[in-house]
Structures are given as structure tokens and as C-alpha cells.
Task: inverse folding
């Protein structure tokens, strides 16, 4: 196996204990901070070359949000790492009972191409913070960023403990044959299954950040102009190539009529009369993806946009009206700058529609009526949820980010990333003496011993007092 | 698929929302409590028939520890199900940001045979508390307990939302072809193969899982200890349930001098516990089945029998046994023993013990005995395992506040207490913003500008605080 040597090299470094001390982890994390600062322009240039990512967007997602995760981690690591002392029962009152935060060992992080630095670094930050050695595999689809990571990131980190592997599909399959102690994968559901099946061979725990069709319900009671801007922003950011982008809108036929001019106005405000000339609108990452998304345009009726330019891999910010559930745009995650609107009679129909489909990474609901937002939240299931906006829940390091069902398993961001890469080891440290405390549990057994043992071990039911 | 209808019936019940209200969950949990109270004698009888489990042990592990989990859950459920409000950034100060505790849906719990009620009910309590529907599959190895669960438990819980399935290996494979929203599997003394099969089946549906597996749990005994206490605590942990415990000390590592001291102390402890002929003691169990008996009996050909070694195939009795001068290459060191045999492997010192432990698969538990705290801490620090106990065995699992689970081939995931509730809960990140206040958002929209970027950064950034280590 072409990677066996690399993996055992990292495993030897892991067994040496080098990644365990807090000073070491802090130093590596601070080096990541310097990478983000010193290579900022290179990152902006690479992502621009890869998918026409506007530098504002690249700065926000690839630099700022990463630095937030870094700072949150550096600010709190000493606290997160500490043994967590826990409640004891009567028998263990004199003992030391705590949760030890152990690293897993050698972990693998596989990143996608749409936010190629962010979706590589944010898991990496948690993996390093938790004391692991790491193999990172950037996406081969975002070639320029892949090269940047492979050539430059390694200069900042301890190469005995952290390695970058560049690999295509075949090579990644071989990489996955090796035993890792944790695998963190961001990508599509179909590849997610392959990764989990490979992980199963070694009983390796995994986090899978996958995708789905994120529905966006717009009730009749809303500020149409605000809704249009927030939905357009979420849909067209990074030219639609966002795992939590609003994938399609559900609303009444009346709301569709109102939304259309508002969306048209928002798009013009954002990108001007000809978005192809705007420096603030991205491109599709590759020819294959471009053709896939373009084919989805034969759904419903093009109400806004619809223009494409194959040479630039440009697809205009597009809104499709009167889309049917059977249309091509409703059969797969769009991952492009097309927003289909599917008409439903009312909120109940919208909720049934959402629940008839695989559980998505995000659900969005827009309404001036808080009760409507709460009902959609209550009666659906998704990775995350945002009422009256799109994407924003991802910017809080205090909220766990992850999918459910087809959209993934596991969660991260902030402390959740540290916890993802940490084995929570239950520990009890008892006294070598005080043996009399133990005699009740030993044979020969008796009813009397049982009665006393029960008294010392039992957890009683408290009086009923609901705090809901 | 023979289980398709059952699974869709439960899924329909799930979609109806019936398991969501707290009153419903509390009622189902209280029904489990009544099951444990009213059927206590039946449980003691069934486990006695299945593996000669002494009633004291059955009452402790199958009844008391389950009721503890139940009470812990009932006492705290209203708190656990609540939305958890979280810290907000400057940009989201006026919003509602919280973690919603959503159930997964229809979950599958596969129990094991060694603590057949405990290892089924423990996860079930958390699954119900978290608002799921559940299919539970008791082990087919313990026929009496399996029958008890299948015939009696459904009478206590809502049959539309909770179902018991009895299935052998073939049927379980078919059961696993269905899509579940979470799978909780406890496997005992089986090779990692079974865990791999489970996870591969789960991967087809991207189903998250908890695997509670096993391993060879090492027990290091340093030269500085109270030999008598150590012998009692280790003997207790090894011979409880006739050794059929996933966290039992599997083998001892100590110096040749300590081996010499331990033997008489172990002999005395065993005599104290079970009398001169343990086969006559009502307090010592039996192997669960003929195949297990034969497997464990074959392991006796390792090292030298220093204590015990007697067997009786008719009763599936294996005496509390201690083997000395065991080599790492001996049969008994090749698999999890899961029987009442304690091999002693001699090592020169603590460093050699730690290296030995680290050369094998990571176990479910590591034990270290020493009067010197530093020794215990070093073993903890330099090894990796599911859990750890210093100066005792088994006891760490009796605390509902400690997460119980494996690492590497000993498993993935953790449970007990709130950790079980969390296992069966999807932590959904939620943000509820204002429909108005649009001016707050204008900075993020195109057309982009350096000025906008500067303000966005100020509104969203998390600053690095002054370096101040609290370690």
C-alpha cells in the first residue's frame, strides 16, 4: 500500500507522545494562525483561480471563520483538556472520578473543494487541539488550493506528526485501506457510504459531513424584500456551491408572485444588471459540475437569469418558477446558483413535503410569525435550522454543526471539534486501603449484604418537579 | 425482508409524533421501572437458568444498576430535553441561538447475553428518554431471558413504538438490511468481525452507531501494594458472573516477586468467596453454553495451573482458576477469555507492562494497582483504553456520571446516565433571527468592498484572549 509507510511514520510519532503536551498543541495551532495570516493572499488567489471565489467571500470563510475557530480553541484549550471531575455515589465518595480527554491517535481528514481551506483547517484545528497526529487530504478538484496546501501548509507544521496527501479517487481508496483511529470526511453522501464502509473494516469512528436538498419555507406572513435578500445571499454565495445553501423554496403561489420581483431586485442590487461582469459572483468549479448544473435548468420555467457561459463556467443567478417535484432540479442537490420555487398550498403541505424526503443538512423557515418558524422546526428533522435567515447558524462556534440521516453523522465547530477528536475516557482512582468499604460486595452473598449494598449504590427517584 | 412491515409500522408511529411529549416518555420509562420491580423474581430465575447467575449478582447488575439508570434519567429528563441556549456573536446578539434535542427516529438495540437485561434496558432507557421508537433484540444465547423479554416486556410498553425481536445470526442479518436511524450494539467475547459486520451494514444507510465491544483488559499490579486487598479486588472482578464480564480484568501483569505474593492471597480470596469447593457455592456462576464452556476450557492449556483448573462439562462449571508463567504466545493470551481464568504474565517493571499493553489492541478497560499514586497515574497517562480504574476493578461502570465505551477494537461511542440520552439524541444547531432589522445584514451582501469587510470582521471575529494557562 503506497501510504503504509507514511501512516506508520505518523503512528510512531504518535506513540512517542510528542503531540500530547499542551505547549506542543498550542505551538502547532499558532503556526496554523501564521499560515492563515502569511498566506492569506495565496489563499485568495488560489480559490479565485479554482472557482472564481470573490476575495470578500474567500476572506470571510477561508480566513476569518477559520481564525475564529482557531482563537476559540486557543482561548479555551487549557480548560477543554483538563480532567473533568464528575459526581460520585456514596461508595466512591472518597475516590477520584473524572473524564480524561485522550486523543484517538492518527486521524484522517478528507476535505472537499467548495471551501477548501475552511473545511480542511477547521477539523484539523480540533484534531491538533485534541492531541492527535493527522493526515489531511485536500480535494483534487480545487487544484490550485490543493497545491497550496501540499506545498505550503507542511512548512508550518511538524512534518513528523502532520502530513498532507494529494490523491485522486483511486489513491484515496488505497489510503482508506490503512487503519486510522478517526476519519473525518466532508463530501457527498455516496462517497460517505464508501468511507464508512472502509472505516468499518477497522472499526474506525467517523464524522461524515454530507449534503442534501435544504428546503426553504417562506410563509405568506413575511417581509418579502428581506426574505428575498437573505435567501438570494444564501443561494448565490460561492455561486451556490455551499452545503447549507437554501436548495429550493416552498411557498404559496401568491408568495411566489411576490418573491419574484423581490428576488430580481436583490440579484440586481448584489450583482448588477449583468452578473457575469460582477467581481462578486463566483464560477462553477469544473466543467463536469458546470454541465451537471446547467442540465438542471430544464425544470419549471426560468423566471430570472438562466444564462450560461461554458468557457467561463458561468451560470447566472437563476430562479426557476413552477417547479414540480418530478423535475430534474428536484432530484439531486443543486450545488449551483439556481433557486427552484415549488408551490405548496400551506405550511402543513410544506412540512409534509420536507418530511417525505431525506433529512437535509439545514432547514430554513421564514415568517414574521414566530409560531410558524417554531412549528417548522418542531415538525421536521435536519442537521441544523435557521429561522428568518440562511447560512448564519454556521457562523456560531457555540452551535454544533452536522447532519442527520443522509446528510451526515457527527458534529463539529468550536468545542465540538475538540470533542469529536477526543476519546472521553472514564476514570476512577480508588484507595489501596479502606477495604472494609468493599466487603459488602464480596461473596459469600447474603440478603443482608444486598440490602446494605443497595443502600450505598442506589440512585433514588426524586420528587416530581417538572421545570419545563 | 421479514422485518420490513415491523420497521414501517414503527416508522409510522414515529412520524405520528407520539414518542415526543415528555409525559409519554416518562410514562414509558416508569413502565420499565414496574417491569423491573414486578418481574424481578422472573429475571433472577431466568438468568440463573441461563448461566447460573447468582441472584445477588443478578439483583445488583440486572435490577439495581438498571433502576439507577432509570432514576437518573427520570430525575433529570426535563432538564436534558430542554433547548440549550448558547453563546452568541456580536452579529447574532439579538437572536435566539440554541441546541434542540431531537430524537433520531427508529433505533435498533442489540443486547448481549452476559448481562442480558442490563445491556438491553440500559440503552433502551436512553433511547426512550430521547424520544425514539425502538426495536430491541435480546441475545438468543440466553434463551430464558430472551423468552422473558419477548413475552413480558411488550406488556409494559407501547407496542406501537417499541418492539422486541427474537432472532438468530441469520435473522439478525436480515433485520440489519432495514434502515434504522441509530444502531446500538453490544457484542461480547466475539471477535471484532461481528462489530465490522454491524458497521458495514450500518454504512449502507449511513446509520450512526454505538458499538460496545470487548478486549483483553490488562491488570497491572505494582510491587508496592497491599497484596491482600489487591487479590480480593481482582478476584472479585475476574470471577463475578463466572468471568463473563466485558470489563473483567482479563490478565495480570506483575513482577515475578509479586506473582509469588499474589498467589497465596488469591487462593485465600477465592476460598473466602466460594469456600473450599467453589462448585458447591451458590455464589459462583456457570458458562452460558456448551460452546463457550469448551472454548474457555481449551484456554487452560496455558502456563501452569496454580489455583483451580477443575471443570465439569455437565454443569458447564469451570473453577475459579489462576494460571502462572503464562507466555504472550499461549492460547489464553490470543483472545478475550470471558471465563473464570486469570492468567499472570510476568514483566520486569512498569515500563515493560506499559509497553506490553500498548503492543496489543486497545481494551475496554485498563487496571492498575499501586499504593504509589504516581504509578497509577503513569499507567493511565501512557496507555489508551475505553475506561480506567486504579486500585479496583469494575467499579468505574457503577457511576452514571462516567461515560462508558471503548476505543479502537473495543468499540466506539459511549453511554450511561446522560451520555445514553445524548447518544440517542441529534443535537440540532438552531438560530432564530428577526424578520426585520435588515440593516444588520447589509454589510455581508454584494457589492463587496474593503470597508464592508472591515466592519464584518469586527462584528464576527472571535479574538484571541491574553495567554493565561490555567493548567
Result:
Amino acid at each position: 500500500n503506497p501510504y503504509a509507510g507514511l501512516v506508520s511514520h505518523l503512528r510512531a510519532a504518535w506513540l512517542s507522545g510528542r503531540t500530547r503536551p499542551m505547549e506542543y498543541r498550542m505551538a502547532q495551532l499558532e503556526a496554523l494562525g501564521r499560515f492563515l495570516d502569511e498566506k492569506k493572499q495565496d489563499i485568495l488567489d488560489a480559490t479565485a483561480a479554482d472557482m472564481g471565489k470573490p476575495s470578500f467571500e474567500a476572506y470571510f470563510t477561508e480566513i476569518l471563520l477559520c481564525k475564529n475557530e482557531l482563537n476559540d480553541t486557543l482561548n479555551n484549550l487549557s480548560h477543554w483538556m483538563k480532567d473533568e471531575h464528575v459526581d460520585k455515589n456514596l461508595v466512591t465518595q472518597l475516590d477520584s472520578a473524572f473524564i480524561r480527554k485522550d486523543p484517538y491517535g492518527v486521524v484522517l481528514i478528507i476535505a472537499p473543494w467548495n471551501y477548501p481551506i475552511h473545511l480542511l483547517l477547521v477539523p484539523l484545528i480540533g484534531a491538533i487541539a485534541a492531541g492527535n497526529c493527522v493526515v489531511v487530504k485536500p480535494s483534487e478538484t480545487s487544484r490550485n488550493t490543493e497545491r497550496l496546501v501540499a506545498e505550503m501548509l507542511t512548512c508550518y507544521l511538524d512534518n513528523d506528526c502532520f502530513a498532507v496527501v494529494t490523491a485522486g479517487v483511486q489513491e484515496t481508496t488505497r489510503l482508506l485501506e490503512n487503519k486510522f483511529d478517526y476519519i473525518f470526511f466532508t463530501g457527498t453522501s455516496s462517497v460517505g457510504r464508501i468511507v464508512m464502509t472502509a472505516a468499518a473494516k477497522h472499526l474506525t469512528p467517523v464524522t461524515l459531513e454530507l449534503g442534501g436538498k435544504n428546503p426553504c419555507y417562506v410563509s405568506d406572513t413575511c417581509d418579502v424584500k428581506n426574505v428575498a435578500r437573505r435567501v438570494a445571499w444564501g443561494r448565490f454565495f460561492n455561486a451556490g456551491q455551499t452545503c447549507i445553501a437554501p436548495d429550493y423554496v416552498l411557498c404559496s403561489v401568491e408568495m411566489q408572485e411576490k418573491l419574484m420581483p423581490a428576488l430580481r431586485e436583490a440579484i440586481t442590487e448584489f450583482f448588477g444588471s449583468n452578473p457575469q461582469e460582477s467581481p462578486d459572483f463566483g464560477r462553477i468549479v469544473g466543467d463536469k459540475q458546470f454541465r451537471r448544473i446547467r442540465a438542471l435548468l430544464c425544470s419549471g420555467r426560468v423566471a430570472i437569469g438562466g444564462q450560461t457561459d461554458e468557457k467561463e463556467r458561468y451560470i447566472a443567478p437563476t430562479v426557476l418558477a413552477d417547479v414540480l417535484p418530478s423535475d430534474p432540479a428536484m432530484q439531486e442537490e443543486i450545488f449551483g446558483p439556481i433557486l427552484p420555487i415549488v408551490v405548496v398550498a400551506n405550511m402543513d403541505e410544506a412540512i409534509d413535503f420536507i418530511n417525505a424526503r431525506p433529512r437535509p443538512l439545514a432547514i430554513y423557515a421564514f415568517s414574521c410569525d414566530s409560531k410558524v418558524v417554531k412549528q417548522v422546526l418542531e415538525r421536521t428533522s435536519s442537521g441544523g435550522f435557521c429561522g428568518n435567515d440562511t447560512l448564519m447558524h454556521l457562523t456560531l462556534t457555540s452551535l454544533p454543526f452536522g447532519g442527520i440521516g443522509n446528510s451526515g453523522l457527527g458534529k463539529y465547530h468550536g468545542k465540538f471539534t475538540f470533542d469529536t477528536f477526543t476519546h472521553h475516557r472514564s476514570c476512577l482512582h480508588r484507595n489501596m486501603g479502606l477495604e472494609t468499604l468493599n466487603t459488602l460486595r464480596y461473596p459469600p452473598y447474603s440478603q443482608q449484604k444486598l440490602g446494605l449494598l443497595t443502600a450505598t449504590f442506589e440512585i433514588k427517584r426524586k420528587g416530581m418537579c417538572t421545570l419545563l
In short: Chain A touches chain B through 131 residues (CB under 8 Å). Chain A has two domains: 3-211+410-423, 215-406. Residues 3-211+410-423 of chain A form a domain with the Aldehyde Dehydrogenase; Chain A, domain 1 fold (CATH 3.40.605.10).
